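agent> step 3/5: call structure_predict on target 'Vegetative incompatibility protein HET-E-1' (Fusarium oxysporum f. sp. raphani).
agent> reason: downstream docking stage needs a structural representation; sequence fetched in step 2, passing through unchanged.
tool.input:
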Amino acid sequence: MITTQRAFEAAMLDFKEKLKGQSFYDQILQTTSIEQVYQDIEKLQDKQAKSGRLRHLSKIEPFLARLREYSSVVETFVQAKPDILALIWGPIKLLLLWADVLKQSFDALLNALEEIGNILPDFCELAEMFADNNRLQELLVLYFRDILQFYLISTKFFSMRRLRVVFEMFWPSHRDRIQVVVKHMASHRDLIRKEVRMEEIRRADELRNRELKHFVQTEENNIAQEYASYREHISPKGYDGDLYRFSEAVCDGTGKWLFRDASFQNWLDGKEKANRILWLRGIPGAGKTLLASSVIKHTQQLNNTHTVFAFLTYLDRGISALSVLHSLIFQLTSNSLFLKTMLCQSDLQYLGNDFNVAAAPFQALIHSAGAVRLIVDGLDEIDATQRSRLLKELVRLSGECEECYILLTSRPESDIARDLNGKTINIQVDKNNAGSIQVFINKTMEKWFKDRAFVPSVRDQLQSWAAPLAARAKGMFLYAKVIFRIIYYINDVEDIQNQLEHLPTSLEDAYGRILEQINASAEPQRKKLARLILGWVGCAPSPMTLKEIEQALIVDREHPSKQPRVQAEIDPIHVCGPIVDVVDGYVQFVHFTVREYVE
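tool.output (status=ok):
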């Protein structure tokens, strides 16, 4: 008896662990008798009758009758705890309520219950046959596991979000899983008729588990292969590398103001229902991209929340609204078998070349995913036509998908404001980040003092001269960054003083000073080299690697067929100053505003 009770408890624990959540289990435990089930059925029939969609609930009477017999035998021979009886009756109520959202889903559940009711044995007769035999208790455990397995498959399906939308897509595979359990229930009749050993009864339980596991594994493998095929065909752009680079560049202590902002908190918590789009707008160089990276890293840690994102840049000439949508789709589905299955069963014939075809499954996926935080940075850096197409779709999505909250960053361009059509909560970044810029300046100066080993008296002077820098930056991290790049390796303290006491009036003025320094260089070769590098960086249709730049610089225009040979490495930052950078081996302007200034 003790062994049998432990077997029942083990089955209960296994069911509880595999169930979606504790809340479902708690709801199940509230129903402990068939009388409660009949009361719930009566309420459901009244509800259906009032709405003119009464269904044939009498079809499940054989199932309920067999379970009544089963629970009676279990109570008699096993001394069952209330939780065991609750697991027999409780799931029925939840399944009927969940399935009632759609006529087809309700009928599918009734048909499954009817089929199982017709193959379950007469448990009272079974009790008489094996009254003095331990085989009865083994068989009761076996059927208990079968019933719980059916409930587990069914609860996972009928509790799906937006069952109305996904029923036709997912029911066939779940119906096939149920059939595996039904087949094994039917096969138990042979165990009842024959004189079998207990080992054979246990083997039947193991066989069902193996077959179900094989069925599920095969199904998952097929989906994985199909999904991988679509992904390879579309080859969506990934932004994880950008996220790593930007999040690593965030200066500790900066950006905290945003997470204290009430509008942002409402967006983050999903409390803002009227306008679910948050627009972080601001002047160039205000740190919008780094703020976006901080938001992404934060939302990735939220429970039950999907985060998808894109960092758009002028450097990617091939970017389009469709390519962004592709990236978001495959980000959203990458870690969810359910969403992968949903995508693979969508109409994807023209996914690679039709924006509307891509938009349809994306909306369906967001609807079914639950809470989604969608972040797109740098909208102002891509083609105006493409960003308009993308923006209109995102605005439409925000209206259709109640749990999708969108964050956008860009300059306050008039066409972007027009497409957003006032359906956003706006935060002006450069009006709120003065404190963060001061933190950035302080930490940069600490590093500067350490790297250059200035004596204490000079440090005090430098801090005094740099005091106006935060105010002069006018909300631009980039301005402060460029100034530090200009002065970082100057050896003459008087030259540093001159730079800090005569700060550029704007970012463009800072760029102009750097170009003036290049043109005024006493080294003709360096001036020529700097102009060539800036020319290649500004005119190349796609970013060039440092090696490509080095090759391009030694091409002989008078003898183009001559094979160039690089004799020495070049440091573009040393040659051109702080308006260029080398990122992941590619030479590029420190900000897209440099390109605009040069052009």
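agent> step 4/5: record observation. The longest strand covers residues 305-311.
agent> proceeding.
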